Every structure is written in structure tokens, then in C-alpha cells.
Amino acid sequence: MTDTISKERRSWNMSRIKGKDTGPELILRSLLHREGFRFRLHDPKLPGHPDIVLKKYESVIFVNGCYWHRHQKCPKATTPKTRTSFWLNKFAETVERDKRKCAELEELGWNVIIVWECQLKEAPQRTLTEVRNQLERI
């Protein structure tokens, strides 16, 4: 299916996609804050600029979008029908970068927690419980 809007408009739309303060990230931050967790955001000194940094627990949290970060077996992790090889390469680079940044953080002594967009939207309280359990084990 061909695009129904101009190249300029598509570019403008794509430029509006945020990398910080996304809806799922705001939901998790609100839940964590209500539970009494205190944290920093997007620490530029850490590899990958984690979304949430819980220094007290030596942990970082990435809130990953299912589409861009390729959540396995998630219906949101679709592949466009046009320019498929371009998109598969782009997605593979994102996944590889994620693995590299997580490994770098773990080498520095940080515990890495990944929260997926779909899990947070479908069951925010269950996701919070899972995060809390991971933090308590540390």
C-alpha cells in the first residue's frame, strides 16, 4: 500500500515521535513514585541513557516500545510491507544497540530491567509488581 500523505508530511509526523517522556514511561514513573521509589531520569553519563535510574537499588529501567525494540511475539512488533529490508536492518541495529548498552551497564555494576510498552498498557499494576519484585531481590 502506498503512502497517502506527502513525503514532507510523513517526515514531519516522524519528527514528532518522542524518545523521552513517552506515555508508557510516564505511567511507570507515576506508579513507581506512588510506591515511594525515588529516581533520576535519562542519565546522560550512563550508556544508553536509561529512562529511569534507581541509584539506591543500583538499577536502571528501560521502557521499550514494542515496535521499535522488537518485542518478540507481540502483535505490535510488525514489519512494514514496503522497504522491508531497510526496516529489518534498522530494527536489527536497534536490537543490537540495546544488547550492547545493557551489557555495558551490567559491566558497570548496574542491574538492567526492561519494561515493555504492551505489558505496561495491558496490566500496569502487574508490571509494577514485577518491577518491585526485581528491585527487592537486589
Task: Explain what the structure shows.
By secondary structure, the chain is of the alpha+beta class. The protein has one domain: VSR Endonuclease (Endonuclease, Chain A). It is built from six helices and four strands, in the order ααβββααβαα. It has helices at 7-15, 23-34, 66-69, 84-107, 117-122, 124-136; strands at residues 40-41, 52-54, 59-64, 111-116. It has a four-stranded mixed sheet with strand order 1-2-3-4, sandwiched between helices. A hairpin with a 4-residue loop joins strand 2 and strand 3. The relative contact order is 0.17.
| Biggest beta-sheet profile | 4 strands, mixed
**If you consult CATH, what is the topology?**
Endonuclease, Chain A
Helix content: 40-55%
**What would you report as the Rg, rounded to the nearest angstrom?**
17 Å
How many H/I helical runs? 6
Strand content: 5-15%
Shape: globular
Q: Which stretches are poorly predicted, pLDDT < 50 over at least 5 residues?
A: none
What strand order characterises the main sheet?
Answer: 1-2-3-4
Secondary-structure element order, as H and E? HHEEEHHEHH
Number of domains: 1
Mean pLDDT: 92
Computed structural class = alpha+beta
**Using DSSP, what is the number of strands?**
4
- Going by CATH, the architecture would be 3-Layer(aba) Sandwich
Q: Could you give the distance between the termini? A: 49 Å
Describe how the helices and strands are arranged.
Blueprint: H1 7-15, H2 23-34, E1 40-41, E2 52-54, E3 59-64, H3 66-69, H4 84-107, E4 111-116, H5 117-122, H6 124-136
Parallel strand pairs: 3-4
Antiparallel strand pairs: 1-2, 2-3
